[in-house]
Specification:
ten-stranded antiparallel beta sheet, alpha+beta, three-stranded mixed beta sheet, 337 residues, HIT family, subunit A, 15 strands
Length: 337
């Protein structure tokens, strides 16, 4: 396949698909397990038994009869000890043209996904993944109840190359008084598409992807996983609800179960097929207080970090993807899980 420029329908950004610059992973790189399922480390603040090494929990799903900030939890949420934003600050904007600033108000929390020191989400049981998702939803609702919050972003860094500073499985939630640039770009494209067609951009793209099946990885009754048409990274996967939903606040019990199943499925395919690659995961949902938020369609993105940005990417703003999404989807579909 010759190099090709593709325009991301959701952001308007251009991606270069250049398959000659990369090689597909070899079949014999697949493996069922990579690291031992270590139960506990005495020096890890996120391990069970070390609860006093973190700030006091704001949410925990626990075994009956256990108390706050002690062992017995299955999922635990605590304020980030080194927060990017703080709820103690006032949401104040200062302007001295051309310079503008805003106090760093917001929330930054850590979701400790398991009491076990190493348990990859792709190797968890479905009910374990479900509880992580419920924690994401519960904390989103709590943060959005603050009228100063405009957007809640959920993300996960897995592996040193993806920015993880701690090995223990965890994700993070950041609620801010401004809408992130990437979400604002997606909102703008959604509004433009709706103005032209009267329909949801994500709904239309998802329906077309299901029909064509060229970039489909897997699906169930409620969600679809696919390699986006203009993937910014090799083996990037998006998980999208088939029914129009704007954010986690709309999830119900059957939604959470189906989402847990497909998320575990995708992460397991990446774990086995790509030899446990470092990856970033983020969940984009609608801004909390915009009238146009109903045009937004929430989605989850998983971006393996198999190559590094260099001079061209930094200087041009173009992403270079070494594996065409169609080839990536075909490979991931073939991974035996």
């Amino acid at each position: 396949m010759p190099p090709e420029l593709r325009r991301d329908p959701f952001t308007g950004r251009w991606v270069i698909v250049a398959p000659e610059r990369g090689k597909r992973p070899l079949q014999d790189r697949r493996q069922e397990t990579k690291r031992p399922n270590v139960e506990r480390r005495s020096d890890c603040a996120f391990c069970a038994g070390n609860e006093l090494m973190t700030p006091p929990e704001v949410l925990a799903y626990r075994e009956f009869g256990t108390g706050s900030n002690e062992p017995g939890w299955r999922v635990r949420v605590v304020p980030n000890m080194y927060p990017a934003l703080s709820p103690e600050l006032e949401s104040i904007t200062l302007s001295d043209r051309p310079f503008e600033s805003m106090a760093g108000f917001g929330y930054h929390e850590v979701v400790i996904e398991t009491p076990f020191h190493y348990r990859h989400m792709g190797l968890m049981e479905r009910n374990e993944v479900e509880e992580v998702l419920w924690a994401w939803r519960d904390r989103t609702l709590s943060m959005e109840a603050d009228p100063r919050i405009q957007h809640v972003l959920i993300f996960k860094n897995h592996g040193y190359e993806a920015g993880a500073t701690l090995e223990h499985p965890h994700s993070q939630i950041v609620a801010a008084s401004v809408v992130p640039q990437r979400v604002a770009e997606e909102m703008a494209m959604a509004q433009e598409y709706h103005a032209e067609t009267g329909r949801c951009l994500w709904c239309d793209v998802t329906s077309l992807e299901i029909e064509q099946r060229k970039r489909l990885v897997t699906e169930n009754d409620l969600f679809v996983a696919l390699c986006p048409y203009a993937s910014t990274s090799s083996y990037e996967v998006s998980i999208v609800p088939k029914r129009h939903q704007t954010g986690l606040s709309e999830l119900r019990s059957h939604d959470v179960g189906a989402l847990a199943s497909i998320l575990r499925d995708v992460l397991r395919r990446l774990y086995i097929g790509l030899d446990d690659p470092p990856y970033n995961l983020w969940l984009h949902q609608a801004p909390a207080r915009l009238a146009s938020a109903q045009l937004y369609h929430w989605h989850l993105e998983i971006v393996p970090r198999l190559s590094k940005w260099a001079g061209y990417e930094g200087g041009s703003g173009f992403y270079i993807n070494q594996v065409p999404p169609e080839e990536a989807a075909n490979f991931l579909r073939g991974v035996s899980i």
